[in-house]
Known about the structure:
Ribosomal Protein S8, Chain: A, domain 1
Amino acid sequence: MDSGEALLKKRLRELSDRAERTGMCFYLGFLSAPELSVALDLSRSGVLRDMESFGGFPDAERRMVRFGGGEEDWPIACVEIAPKSEKFAGQMDHRDVLGALMNLGIEREVLGDQRRDGARWLLFVRQEMAGALTQLTQVRQTPVRCRVLDRAETLPPQEMKRETVLAASERADVLVAELCRLSRSSASELFRREKVFVNGRICPDPGTRLKEGDVFSVRGYGKFVLRGQSGTSKKGRLYLTVDRYV
């Protein structure tokens, strides 16, 4: 266990114990996928009590965790980052947006997931930091405007691209190799390096069988949902339907 993981576990236990002792609500976040996997394992083993996680929308990868939550709302705001003029806007990917925010001195732990919606980006952030994000005026060479969305505004559905994969089985390493255009040995290396997550938890076993509805992500390659089997080839290989998060 490295020092970062040990510190995270200590912090999680402290918040869990404090919430149980005081009856109050305590938050920590946003956690990355590896950090959240650690928290989920501790929660399932009973070390952490009354833990919940949320990232602003159901399929969020980066999530806050809380202990003793009760009925109160999560302190998460959604900030829209959009070009002032779509006609003259340059290309902006999520790394560009994140880098521009880091240059403002905003710490990563207060920022959740980003979602693209056409030319704009929607960024989930700790509520008390939402105002600071409105200081952002430029991403790369593109002037932008930022506003905090009202809670009543409906978020657009998550954009996904449907793909059909021809695979020997629903083994996780088979799907990772096919979807990420890798050899089986290169795909297996990603599991060894703890870069693959299934339903939010680190997946160390390349032979894990995925089932319909499983959400799996590969650091540096993307996030996917297995939708099921749509048929079988003459050679007995499976046609698997997968949605790729865009």
